[in-house]
């Protein structure tokens, strides 16, 4: 790519959650539901001395993508690390449920979820976990009718219970800057020791959980440049491809077979992981 092309790019990562949603939707179709002026915020954070945000860190935007009805659910990684509380997770789950209901009523609404999140908001604990479980159920329901596309683009990545949400999506898009994993590096180091995972070793972390590696191992479908137009084009292409015949989360037998080839007593390398996972995940 030459210098001019680089200059003409618009970074998707540098956009805030609301701007990302707006740029993914067709021009002029953006309509935010439960916007900040509605003041639907967490009832729990203020009691703990934490400043609340009027949208609770989740943007729900309805509009069109490629001329078809769609909802974009964007998590604001700048607020509480993109963590999911009762309100933010309920906004996402409720929107997915309404999209599924649209499909049952003959309106082919699809969904895009922008994952910039460390998972559940610790200050809301079980309330957040319960709401994330509702997101999981809603994704599985909606993907019976339309593709559900997940995008993780920024350095916060996607972790915790929301990484399960990402795994349930019909398709996943990731950038070089993003990471995807169930547990974050600091948590792994805390539980298994620095010899297992050094949370300060950034090259090592990205070599295992970065989206380039996740794409090489078949856990991310599209490895995209940090370019707004390229990511929107990838979303449109995946929607045009239609529903997956078998979603990744349904390939249980294949994943168990690959896991059985990994020796937990030996420190893995990124190359070994690629070699094992590169064999595929037949159901």
Automatic annotation (TrEMBL):
Record organism: Paraburkholderia hospita
InterPro entries in the cross-refs: AcCoA_carboxyl_beta, ClpP/crotonase-like_dom_sf, COA_CT_N, Malonate_beta
Transmembrane segments: none
One GO term of the biological process aspect: malonyl-CoA biosynthetic process
Record GO terms (molecular function): acetyl-CoA carboxylase activity; carboxy-lyase activity; transferase activity
Keywords: Transferase
Residue ranges occupied by any CoA carboxyltransferase N-terminal domain in the UniProt entry: 1-254
Keyword Ubl conjugation belongs to the record: no
Keyword set includes Transferase: yes
Protein name: Malonate decarboxylase subunit beta
């Amino acid at each position: 790519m030459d210098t001019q092309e680089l200059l003409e790019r618009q970074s998707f990562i540098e956009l805030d959650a609301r701007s990302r949603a707006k740029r993914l939707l067709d021009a002029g179709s953006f309509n935010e539901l439960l916007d900040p002026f509605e003041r639907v915020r967490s009832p729990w954070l203020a009691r703990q001395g934490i400043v609340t945000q009027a949208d609770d860190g989740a943007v729900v935007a309805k509009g069109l993508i490629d001329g078809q009805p769609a909802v974009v659910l964007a998590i604001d990684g700048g607020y509480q690390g993109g963590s999911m509380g009762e309100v933010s997770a309920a906004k996402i789950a409720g929107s997915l449920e309404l999209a599924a209901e649209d499909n049952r009523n003959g309106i082919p609404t699809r969904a895009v979820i922008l994952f910039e999140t460390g998972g559940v908001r610790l200050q809301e604990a079980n309330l957040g976990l319960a709401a994330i479980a509702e997101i999981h159920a809603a994704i599985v329901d909606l993907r019976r009718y339309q593709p559900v596309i997940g995008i993780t683009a920024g350095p916060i990545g996607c972790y915790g219970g929301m990484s399960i949400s990402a795994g349930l999506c019909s398709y996943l898009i990731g950038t070089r800057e993003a990471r995807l994993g169930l547990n974050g590096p600091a948590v792994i180091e805390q539980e298994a020791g620095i010899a297992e995972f050094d949370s300060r070793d950034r090259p090592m972390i990205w070599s295992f959980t970065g989206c380039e590696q996740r794409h090489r191992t078949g856990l991310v479908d599209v490895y995209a440049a940090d370019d707004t137009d390229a990511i929107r084009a990838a979303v449109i292409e995946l929607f045009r491809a239609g529903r997956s015949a078998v979603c990744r989360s349904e390939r249980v037998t294949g994943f168990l077979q690959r896991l059985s080839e990994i020796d937990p007593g030996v420190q893995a390398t990124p190359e070994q992981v690629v070699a094992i996972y590169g064999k595929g995940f037949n159901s």
